[in-house]
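sanity check this chain:
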Amino acid sequence: MHAVESGLARPILTEIHPYIPGKPISEVAREFGVGDIVKLASNENPLGPSPRALEAMRAMLPAIHLYPDGGCYSLRCKLAGVYDFPADGIVLGNGSTEIVELICEAYLEPGREAITGPQAFFKYRIGCQIMGVQPVMVPMPGYRYDVKAILKAVNARTRLVFIANPNNPTGTYLSRAEIERLIDGLPPQVILVLDEAYHEFVNLPDYPDGLEYVRAGLPVIVLRTFSKAYGLAGVRCGYALTRPGIAADLHKVREVFNCNCLAQIAATAALDDLDFLRATLDLNRRGLDELATRLPQYGLEVVPSVGNFVLADFHRPLEPVFTALLQRGVIVRPMGPYQLPTCARISVGLPEHHQKLFAALQEIL
């Protein structure tokens, strides 16, 4: 049966454009017959996974015939200790992207509104649309959230404001003063979702820690993940830190076994792998500097980034360039879905990954 074709599906599905992830290496190998492929499309950790996480997962393998702990007790307690934060305010997810959908399920329905931006993470709009809500898109001049315009868009129907800080895919961020101006201007019925998936990579004095606002009792949800800095994208583990009452709402719509046993044990171990985290951040600092310096030499305009990626404007339709890069074994991320048809997001890789990218650009451009 084909529910959508037969008209059985909800009408909103006709308006939802599925999220398109970065092309997998295996798919590029099949399509183009190339080897030695470099993937710079999905902001994955080029060092691989945390070694402590790998060791913990290997030890767990004989027990994967058992269901995982549905309450993620050990991992929530570990996170509570790391952040000095109450465990009953922590919600685990199958990646932080799942928690975006849980938030929408808990707080949105037709007649309510959520605010985000056209260059904000694409899953925000999908989560809203699944609940029958078209998100209010506030323009992002200079690839940044416009706090004044967001506050102007808030009305009595608004329930959620989604801010990725740093923002994916632009790499920009809002300062402490800007976030606090936003918080001060939001009415009490609005929850601010601060998606901090890339927070480990930021080392700036004016970058705010969203947990401060949760600890102050404000209606804020902070999202974080093990996919980026800890190299665990493949096992999918993210989490929310928020007020216990909000966490209780999210648990009501959460699938009980949403965080698998390998993800839980790997994330718990990764939190102690400080040497790996330091190595990741050091490599990222050097890699960001190299991309920001070298890419303009090929005519690309690079948006200053505090994440583990850069947004690069090629100033020409991207599709031919994207295909030419794939033919040379380099995967980047086209930004057409974000209304940036001449741009690509390029992840920080190892030095040899960058050299392969630069050599391909030299041939193409």
About this structure: The longest helix spans residues 274-294. The chain has a mean pLDDT of 96. The chain has two domains: 19-48+274-364, 51-270. The CA atoms of residues 119 and 340 lie 8 Å apart.
